[in-house]
Amino acid sequence: AWALLTSAILVVGPVLYLVHTYSPRKNDEAIKNPHEPIYIGLGSPSRCTWYIYGALLQQGGMNLPKTDGARLIVGTWWLVVMVVVATYSGSLVAFLTFPKMEDAINNLDDILQRRQEFTWSLPQGSFLEDFLIVSGEQGMADYRGLLEENEPHARKHDAIAYEANVRKVKHEKHVVIDWTSALKISSRNDHMSTGMCYFSLSTDVLMLEEPIAMGLPADSPYRQIIND
C-alpha cells in the first residue's frame, strides 16, 4: 500500500505540472496580461510533487492552480486523500481497539482443521501412536491424519528429548502431543532453567487413562498390595 501511494505521488506530481504548464488557458492569460507576475507556485515538477505530497498529509498549499485541468487533478487527488485517510484511520482504530487474537489449540480436531499452520509430534513407539493407528475403528474418532505416514506436517520425537521439543514450541509453530505428566515435567524443567513459562497445556485431548507404574524390587512383599 505504501509503495502504491509513493508511486501515485511520483506520477501525479509531474502530470499536474504538465497540465498546468501547457494549458491553453495559461497561454491566453499570458498574452492578455503580459505584465502580470509570473506564477511560480506550481512552476516545476518538484513543486508540484511536493504539493501533492503535502495534500496527502492534509496540508494545503500556499498557491492553487489557475487552469481548469490542474484544478480537476487537484480536486480528484483531494478525494483520493480523503478516502485513504479515512480508511487508514478506521483500520488503525479497529486494530488498536480489537487486536487480532490467535485462536488457541484445545484438541486434536483444532490441529487437523489448521494443519497448514502448525507442525506436531508424537512420542515415537508409544501407546499414543498405536492408539491413533487403530482410531476410526469401533466407532472412535478417526485421528490417523495426525500420523507421520499420513501427514507431512507430523513428526515423531524421543520421549526423553524434552529440550528439543521445548525449543520447537518456543521458536516454531509446533505442538507436542504427549502424556500430560511428560508435558508437565518438560514445562517445569524449562521454567526452572529460564524462570519463564512458555507453555499452554490442553487437557482431556484424548479420553485415555494415563498408565502409571512404580518400580519395586523383584521380591518386594508390597508388590501384590500395590497391584491390588
Automatic annotation (TrEMBL):
It comes from the Eukaryota. InterPro entries: Insect_Ionotropic_Sensory_Rcpt, Iono_Glu_rcpt_met, Iontro_rcpt_C. Its main location: membrane. Residues 2-156 form the Ionotropic glutamate receptor C-terminal domain. It is found in: Cell membrane. Gene3D superfamilies: 1.10.287.70. One of its GO terms (biological process) is detection of stimulus involved in sensory perception. The chain crosses the membrane at residues 77-98. Keywords: Cell membrane, Glycoprotein, Membrane, Receptor, Signal, Transmembrane, Transmembrane helix. Residues 1-21 form the signal peptide. It is a multi-pass membrane protein. The record marks I105 as: Crucial to convey clamshell closure to channel opening. It holds the Pfam family Lig_chan. GO terms for cellular component: plasma membrane. One of its GO terms (molecular function) is signaling receptor activity. Belongs to the glutamate-gated ion channel (TC 1.A.10.1) family. PANTHER family: IONOTROPIC RECEPTOR 20A-RELATED, IONOTROPIC RECEPTOR 60A. This is Ionotropic glutamate receptor C-terminal domain-containing protein.
